[in-house]
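User: quick one, sequence for these tokens?
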């Protein structure tokens, strides 16, 4: 593992309920290169780098990017803007790391609420129970349909999960 990595948070095994992976609880790392990446690609987001531990610990949304060919997932936290981090698995050294941080539009977040509306229509009793239990939005949104339009994978949560032990 790279000496320039800092543990920035813990993987929450509850995420496995909403991702096509079975990842064991482990540290999530941040490399010294992340800040350089943000400065180069997303300079207006540098002010959010200190929020990464909070985003990992308590995301408002969790999902996957279907364009990624590697084991990865996305976490979003609504702060003053909607901040998204991308987390990837380093397959060679077998550790999770924050690969990017950027903002997403309100329309992307609004899609999550559209999904909840659909869930209320499709699964009224179960969704109402979740809402009464104050289940986080990301759990509601991912329990049936995917918030990102690019991420619609009907029945995805019924597929075989890849076991990943770190």
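Assistant:
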């Amino acid at each position: 593992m790279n000496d320039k990595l800092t543990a920035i948070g813990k993987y929450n095994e509850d995420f496995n309920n909403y991702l096509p992976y079975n990842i064991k609880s482990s540290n999530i790392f941040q490399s010294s290169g992340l800040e350089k990446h943000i400065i180069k690609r997303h300079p207006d987001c540098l002010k959010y780098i200190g929020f990464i531990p909070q985003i990992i610990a308590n995301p408002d949304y969790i999902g996957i990017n279907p364009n990624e060919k590697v084991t990865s997932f996305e976490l979003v936290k609504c702060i003053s803007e909607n901040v998204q981090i991308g987390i990837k698995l380093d397959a060679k050294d077998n550790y999770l790391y924050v690969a990017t941080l950027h903002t997403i539009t309100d329309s992307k977040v609004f899609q999550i609420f559209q999904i909840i509306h659909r869930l209320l229509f499709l699964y009224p009793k179960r969704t109402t129970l979740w809402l009464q239990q104050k289940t986080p939005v990301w759990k509601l949104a991912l329990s049936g349909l995917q918030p990102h339009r690019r991420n619609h994978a009907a029945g995805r949560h019924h597929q075989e999960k890849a076991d990943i032990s770190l």
